[in-house]
Amino acid sequence: VQLQASGGGMVQAGGSLRLSCVISGNIFRLNALAWYRQVPGKQRELVAGIRSDGRTNYADSVKGRFTISRENAKNTVYLQMNSLKPEDTGNYYCNEAENSWSPKRSWGQGTQVTVSS
Question: H or E stretch including 90?
């Protein structure tokens, strides 16, 4: 399984970004997928997750601003990030997730998001 995240960049507060993650392997349709964020000096944390039936879960800090979605035909999961804040800055990773939202696979390359005030 390979996880390839992209779409990060530098934006001003209030701006938007859309992250994409292509997941190889024949597991996409069956499992939960999630985005995680890591900031230097802190543990990687769950940002948003989506189950195979479409149910979603969001960190309190991003509710109402971020939207996770998946496109099974393209083996891709997205994270639409609106109204970005400086505290959203970090390296964003995607992964297959356990029922508990813990990451299931080895990490792929993340994509850096930097939000300036």
Answer: strand 90-97
Nearest CA among 4, 17, 15 for reference residue 93? 4
- In SS3 terms, 12-62 reads as ECCCCEEEEEEECCCCHHHCEEEEEEECCCCCCEEEEEECCCCCEEECHHH
Is-contact 19 8, C-beta < 8 A? Answer: yes
Confidence of residue 26 (pLDDT cuts 50, 70, 90): low
Rg of the Cα trace of the chain?
13
The larger pLDDT score, comparing residue 6 to residue 52, is at 6
Do residues 33 and 50 make contact, with C-beta atoms less than 8 angstroms apart?
yes
Q: Calculate the dihedral angle through the C-alpha atoms of 60, 105, 1, 68, rounding to the nearest 10 degrees.
A: -10
Distance CA 108, CA 76 (A): 14
Give the HSE-up count for residue 112: Cα atoms under 13 Å, Cβ half-sphere: 4
Q: What are phi and psi of 98, to 5 degrees?
A: -75, 170
